[in-house]
Amino acid sequence: MIPVDFDYYKPESIEEAARLHEQLDRQKMLPLYYSGGTEIITLLRLDLIQTKAVIDIKAIHECREHILGEDYLVLGSSLTLTQIEERNAFPLLTSVSKEIADHTARNKITLGGNICGEIFYREAVLPLLLTDSLFVIGGPQGVKILPAHEAFQQTMQLGRGEFLIQTLTRKDFLGMPYMSVKIRQQWETGYPLVTIAALKAKGEIRAAFSGLCSFPFRSKRMEDELNRKDGTLDVRMDRALRHIPAPVLNDIEGSAEYRLFVLKNTLTDILTVWEVEQNA
Amino acid sequence: MNIIGKSVIRKEAPDKVTGKARYTDDFSSAGIYHARLVTSPFAHALIKSIDTREAEKVSGVRAILTGEGLPLTGEEITDRPPLAQGKVRHHGEAVCLVVAEKLDKAALAASLIKVDYEPLSAVNSPSQAYQAGAPLVHEHVEHYKRGQNVYPEPGTNIAHKTKIRKGDLSRGIGESAVFVEGRYSFGPSDHAAIETRSCTAEIRADGDVLITSSSQAPFMIKKLIGSYFDIEAGKIIVKTPLVGGAYGGKASVQWEFLAFIASRAVGGKRVKLRYMREEDILTAPCHIGLDATIRLGCTSEGILKSAEILYLFDGGAYADKSPDLCRAGAVDCTGPYHIEHIWCDSYCLYTNHPYPAPFRGFAHSEVLFAFERTMDLLAKKLGMDPLELRFKNAILPGHTTPTQVLVNKSNVGDVRGCIQRLKDIMEEEWEPNAGHDPRKVRAAGIACVWKNSTIDTNASSGVILTFNPDGSVNLMSGVVEIGTGTKTILAQMLAEKLRLPVEMIHVKMTVDTQTTPEHWKTVASRGTLMGGRAVMAAAEDAIRQIKEIASCALRVREEDLDIDSGRVFVKAEPEIGLSFKEVVYGYTYPNGNAIGGQIIGRGSYILRNMTNIDKETGAGRPGPEWAVGAQAVQVEFDTRDCTYRILKAISVVDIGRVLNERAARGQVMGAMSMGLSFAGRETFYFDEMGRVLNFQLRTYRPIRYGEQPKYVVEFVNTPHVEAPFGARGAGEHGLLGMPAALANALSIAAGVEMIHLPLIPELIWRTLQEGKR
Question: For the domain that residue B59 is a member of, what is the CATH number?
Answer without folding.
Answer: 3.90.1170.50
